[in-house]
């Protein structure tokens, strides 16, 4: 695969479910109901065997998990808080001289003069933070273009070299990099780092004491879970400390279900912490963030309506009930935060393995019970059982190695950097059962990050390629960057 696994898997798109049978759900979930509030919150924490994590208690599960893209709502909240600081004169930095007001409509060009630039003049001039966080900049996911050692500033600087798929505000297109950019704006104007700002202004007042944006602190707490593939192979945590600052806005929050209860209670109370009456998310931002700004899914189904995207939140109706939600997925991480604002309850589901479809089914089945509706979720335990086999399989008949020889060379692109496909490994393919040639990039390669060429093999199989007939790599690379929907810009050197 031509992108680092860790960042590719951050892409978290809404999953529309095909819910069919009416088999009752048997998941390890436990409801809690607050006496003070008319809602309940369920928190199944899906655990595989030999999990390292804190023991479950009567009160709940203290195990800390990464939230992946469920962190995005924390960024829109942080930006809203920062905007309110400026409106209240409590700002710690000054805006550029020509910027009178810091709002969701303030142009990026004004907020980041000399830094914000895209290939398209109109987008450079007109894009606002609202456009960035509602995924309507026209940029597709360019998660393969950055290294885990890049800084948010590097991402902004290289934006001008990346291709857009659409014009500004033409269509919804999910882009993590805009959430990295949003976090950069917070760090630039809050007088502190994004991670510290969020911890101080959201986690602290909401008493989310087990939550953090610092992976090292999460590890030190002894409560942080290990991560697993669906087939129960343990894998390293996808966001080590050195990359946490880069990915903080897109997927950097670590929390547990106990802390997330306070986050959801606040959300169900329109941004105000019901325990202290303190406003956490300013009302204007809360209303905007949880409203449909762009259309993410244009068609509904028997169970779900069309889906609008706000600022780190998706808004839809599930079986006629209002749902403001987001899911998150990364290697070894699957999360769901589903507040049902009109019904007064929310579902938080954190799992230490990937599997958005399964977790979505569990969350919806819990909602069915809360809403008193017959469950529509199909049997989930079969998919979560010990024989889960969700990982891609290596083809039985691998592609002859000589086909791959055509891929060797160095590729360069200003936005993506250079990478080299090394040829010396290819002749060994047939002689090393169980080993695969490695795809090495020059930007990442010296940092000891390597990716399997397996996806390329599968791609070749899918395309029916049986001889080294293709003279150029372009077809292949367009396939992997298909969301860009434009002609290839890759150059190959021999
Ligand atoms: C707050 O922002 C205003 C307007 O940008 C600026 O004049 C003022 O100096 C800032 N306050 C502080 C404490 O920097
Ligand atoms: C919060 O505000 C409500 C309504 O104004 C009030 O009834 C309640 O006592 C307040 N709670 C606290 C903890 O201040
Ligand atoms: C990438 O390759 C181009 C063309 O060979 C070269 O000019 C450039 O310096 C390379 N960039 C990096 C970062 O190595």
TrEMBL record:
Keywords: Signal. It comes from the Eukaryota. Gene3D superfamilies: DD-peptidase/beta-lactamase superfamily (3.40.710.10). Residues 1-20 form the signal peptide. InterPro entries: AmpC-like, Beta-lactam-related, Beta-lactam/transpept-like. Belongs to the peptidase S12 family. This is Beta-lactamase domain-containing protein. It comes from Mycena sanguinolenta.
């Amino acid at each position: 695969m031509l992108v680092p696994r860790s960042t590719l898997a951050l892409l978290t798109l809404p999953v529309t479910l095909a819910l069919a049978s009416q088999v009752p759900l048997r998941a390890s979930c436990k409801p809690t109901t607050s006496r003070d509030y008319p809602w309940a919150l369920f928190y199944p924490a899906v655990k595989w065997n030999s999990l390292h994590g804190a023991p479950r208690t009567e009160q709940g599960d203290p195990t800390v998990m990464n939230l992946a893209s469920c962190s995005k709502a924390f960024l829109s909240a942080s930006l809203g808080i920062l905007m309110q600081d400026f409106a209240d004169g409590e700002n710690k930095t000054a805006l550029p001289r020509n910027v009178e007001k810091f709002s969701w409509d303030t142009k990026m060009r004004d907020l980041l003069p000399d830094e914000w630039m895209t290939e398209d003049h109109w987008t450079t001039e007109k894009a606002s933070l609202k456009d960035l966080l509602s995924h309507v900049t026209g940029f597709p996911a360019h998660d393969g273009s950055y290294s885990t050692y890049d800084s948010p500033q590097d991402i902004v600087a290289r934006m001008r070299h990346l291709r857009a798929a659409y014009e500004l505000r033409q269509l919804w297109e999910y882009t993590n990099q805009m959430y990295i950019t949003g976090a950069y704006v917070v760090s630039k104007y809050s007088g502190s780092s994004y991670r510290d700002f969020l911890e101080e202004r959201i986690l602290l007042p909401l008493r989310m004491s087990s939550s953090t944006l610092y992976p090292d602190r999460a590890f030190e707490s002894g409560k942080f879970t290990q991560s697993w593939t669906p087939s129960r192979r343990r894998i390293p945590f996808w966001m080590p400390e050195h990359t946490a600052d880069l990915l903080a806005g897109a997927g950097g929050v670590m929390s547990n279900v106990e802390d997330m209860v306070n986050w959801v209670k606040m959300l169900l109370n329109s941004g105000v912490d019901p325990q202290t009456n303190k406003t956490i998310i300013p009302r204007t931002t809360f209303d905007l963030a949880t409203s449909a700004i762009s259309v993410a899914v244009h068609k509904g189904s028997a169970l779900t309506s069309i889906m609008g995207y706000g600022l780190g939140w998706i808004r839809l109706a599930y079986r006629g009930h209002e749902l403001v939600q987001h899911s998150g997925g990364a290697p070894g991480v699957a999360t769901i935060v589903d507040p049902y604002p009109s019904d007064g309850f929310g579902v938080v589901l954190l799992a230490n393995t990937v599997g958005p479809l399964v977790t979505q089914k569990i969350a919806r089945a819990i909602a069915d019970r809360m809403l008193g509706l017959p469950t529509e979720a199909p049997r989930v335990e079969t998919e979560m059982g010990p024989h889960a086999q969700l990982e891609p399989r290596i083809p039985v008949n691998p592609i002859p190695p000589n086909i791959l020889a055509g891929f060797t060379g160095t590729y360069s692109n200003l936005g993506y950097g250079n990478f080299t496909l090394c040829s010396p490994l290819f002749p060994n393919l047939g002689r090393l059962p169980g080993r695969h040639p490695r795809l090495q990039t020059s930007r990442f390669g010296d940092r000891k990050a390597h990716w399997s060429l397996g996806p390329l093999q599968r791609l070749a199989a899918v395309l029916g390629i049986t001889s080294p007939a293709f003279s150029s790599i372009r077809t292949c690379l367009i396939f992997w960057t298909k969301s860009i929907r434009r002609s290839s810009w890759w150059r190959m050197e021999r």
